[in-house]
């Protein structure tokens, strides 16, 4: 899932202090699971902003709301009239939600309430760890299910480097060396010899280096388009 | 002969090779490079010119290598994967070759968070590159040199002729994988290997044996890394903190004893420890050169370049062989 962290209230206040009508709008999927931006957190953020406004003696109308997923218009568009009544939306979704809302709800500024952090796992309640880089060219079958792209601080494909110290990374004794884990895992799986092969330079074109990425599943996109056209024709009738 | 560098010629001649290290300054003045080059010249076959080691901005390896070469010291230019993508790397390699540089050591580079182990500010917020890793960089150099091709496949009219090197941390963990790690670098094209500092020669010997059994050491020149110890404190620090470095207790005890012999005289304590450090280094050099497959030593006298002359002479490795170019 996508893991995010709330921005400090000071930073939010700095963004919002000149607006009069604000809606804090949450997302009940990934960012709710990481206790950063669901309906509950949107409500708390709205309360904190109200308190701050009162302290500053500023009159502000701060509402809150949420939808299931800000990454799909059908979930937030039902609230469009509420959005239109605001001066600004503070989205506590991940950056995907902020981007999509910005493009869909007209000339309304949508500001980020979170810092979108990473694709993460929840190994235990309250702990979130980055385990996938979303590089668009997965190599996990070669590395024992341990991602060298984000779990190795140097994204090495032919690791480890010389910085491994007691199984930890040179940048911190709190961070596991991914290549230490990979080697140990591959030994257990009986597939260590896979690591003897030299991995060639990676094509980063499938990652952010290739420009904004887009995937279209044509038959579904076409179907959607047809139904939309049909609906338009019916409305015209 | 792939590059015609002095280092390659000495290695091919069968003489034990000696490399040293020259760290460029955090300054735009070339004086320190010139000064250090003159101290090292004649006492090593080539000197590594570090590439922003510990992720601290210094004169670039290529520029400093060029200055050292101009002063008569053969440089081993270093190239980290941290700071350049494959476009910048290859552009710099062509430029370095055009400037007459002949040795290149490929390294991953210390992570930018490392920032001189906290002694300097560094640039912990920098974005690193790691477009390719060391093994891949070695392969790129080899492809450029031997096939006259860029990594992407475009033709190179006049290829850069580098003697290609890489590093090895034989005692880093996971230790049983390290010989394979070395094999990958050598298979990719590394013709010389400089190791992390070795103090535990027995352990190093057994790692070398494993590498030899993989057929690696016949295809590369392994230069054992020796970091000249200056004090008992330094040895303890390295033992506890430096990745892949273990220092046997007897060596730490020897240095501690040298310190104790000086009593409260701090100046004398420094002098006695340095003398002991040089003795230890010479012993380590002799032990390393006896290990089958070891073709030389890489001596690092950090901020203590004048020690190289003393060590090389005491180890019977002076004068350095003069192997004329073909």
Quaternary assembly? heterodimer
CA gyration radius of chain A, whole angstroms: 23 Å
Number of strands of chain B: 8
* Share in β-strands of chain A: 15-25%
- Can you tell me the number of structural domains of chain A? 2
In the CATH hierarchy, the third-tier topology of the largest domain in chain A is known as Rossmann fold
**Radius of gyration of chain B in whole Å, from Cα?**
19 Å
Query: How far from one another are the termini of chain B?
Result: 9 Å
- The CATH topology label of chain B is TIM Barrel
- Output the number of helix runs of chain B: 11
The CATH architecture of the largest domain in chain A comes to 3-Layer(aba) Sandwich
Shape assignment of chain B: globular
What separation lies between the terminal Cα atoms of chain A? 44 Å
If strands are numbered along the chain, what order do they take across the biggest sheet of chain B?
A: 1-2-3-4-5-6-7-8
> Could you say what the CATH architecture of chain B is?
Alpha-Beta Barrel
Question: Can you offer a commentary on this structure?
Answer:
The complex is a heterodimer of chains A (237) and B (326). By secondary structure, chain A is an alpha/beta fold. Chain A folds into 2 domains: 117 residues, Response regulator (Rossmann fold, 3-Layer(aba) Sandwich), CATH 3.40.50.2300; 75 residues, no CATH class. In chain A, a hairpin with a 2-residue loop joins strand 8 and strand 9. Chain A is flat, with a radius of gyration of 23 Å. Chain B is α/β, with parallel strands linked by helices and 326 residues long. Chain B has one domain: Alpha-Beta Barrel (TIM Barrel), CATH 3.20.20.220. Chain B is built from 11 helices and 8 strands. In chain B, strands 1-2-3-4-5-6-7-8 form an 8-stranded parallel β-barrel, surrounded by 6 helices. Chain B is globular, with a radius of gyration of 19 Å. The model of chain B has no long low-confidence stretch (mean pLDDT 96).
């Amino acid at each position: 899932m996508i893991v995010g962290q709330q921005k400090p209230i000071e930073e939010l206040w700095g963004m919002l202090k000149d607006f009069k009508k604000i809606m804090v709008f949450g997302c009940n999927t990934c960012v709710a699971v990481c206790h950063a931006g669901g309906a509950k957190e949107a409500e708390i953020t709205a309360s904190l902003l109200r308190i701050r406004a009162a302290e500053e003696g500023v009159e502000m109308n701060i509402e809150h709301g949420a939808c299931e997923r800000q990454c799909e218009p059908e979930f937030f568009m039902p609230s469009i009239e509420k959005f239109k009544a605001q001066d600004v939306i503070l989205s506590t979704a991940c950056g995907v939600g902020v981007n999509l809302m910005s493009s869909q709800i007209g000339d309304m500024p949508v500001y980020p309430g979170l810092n979108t952090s990473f694709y993460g796992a929840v190994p235990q309640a309250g702990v979130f760890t980055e385990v996938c880089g979303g590089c668009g060219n997965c190599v996990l079958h070669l590395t024992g299910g341990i991602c060298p792209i984000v779990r190795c601080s140097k994204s090495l494909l032919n690791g480890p480097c010389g910085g491994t110290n007691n199984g930890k990374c040179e940048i911190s004794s709190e961070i596991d060396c991914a290549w230490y884990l990979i080697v140990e895992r591959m030994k257990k799986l009986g597939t260590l010899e896979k690591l003897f092969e030299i991995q060639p330079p990676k094509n980063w074109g499938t990652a952010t280096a290739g420009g904004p990425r887009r995937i279209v599943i044509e038959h579904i996109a076409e179907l959607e388009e047809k139904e939309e056209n049909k609906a338009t024709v019916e409305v015209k009738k | 002969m792939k590059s015609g560098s002095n280092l390659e010629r000495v290695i091919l001649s069968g003489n034990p090779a000696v490399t040293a290290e020259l760290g460029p300054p955090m300054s735009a003045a070339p004086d320190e490079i010139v000064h250090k080059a003159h101290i090292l010249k004649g006492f090593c076959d080539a000197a590594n010119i570090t590439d922003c080691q510990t992720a601290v901005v210094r004169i670039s390896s290529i520029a400093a290598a060029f200055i050292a070469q101009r002063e008569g010291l053969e440089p081993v230019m270093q190239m980290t994967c941290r700071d350049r993508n494959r476009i910048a790397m290859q552009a710099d390699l062509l430029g370095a070759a055009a400037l007459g540089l002949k040795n290149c050591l490929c390294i991953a580079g210390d992570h930018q968070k490392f920032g001189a182990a906290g002694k300097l500010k560094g640039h912990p917020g920098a974005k690193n590159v790691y477009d390719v890793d060391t093994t891949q960089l070695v392969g790129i150099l080899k492809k450029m040199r031997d096939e006259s091709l860029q990594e992407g496949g475009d033709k190179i009219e006049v290829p850069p002729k580098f003697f290609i090197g890489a590093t090895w941390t034989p005692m880093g963990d996971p230790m049983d994988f390290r010989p394979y790690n070395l094999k990958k670098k050598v298979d990719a094209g590394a013709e010389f290997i400089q190791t992390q500092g070795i103090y535990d020669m027995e352990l190093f010997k057994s790692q070398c044996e494993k590498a030899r059994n993989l057929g690696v050491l016949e295809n590369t020149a392994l230069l054992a890394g020796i970091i000249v110890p200056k004090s008992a404190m330094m040895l303890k620090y390295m033992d506890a903190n430096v990745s892949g470095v273990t220092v046997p207790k007897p060596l730490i005890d020897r240095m501690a004893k040298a310190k104790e012999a000086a009593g409260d005289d701090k100046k004398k304590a420094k002098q006695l420890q340095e003398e002991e450090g040089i003795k230890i280094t010479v012993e380590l050099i002799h032990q390393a050169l006896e290990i089958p497959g070891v073709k030389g030593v890489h001596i690092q006298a950090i901020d203590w370049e004048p020690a190289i002359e003393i060590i090389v002479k005491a180890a019977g490795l002076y004068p350095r062989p003069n192997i004329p170019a073909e």
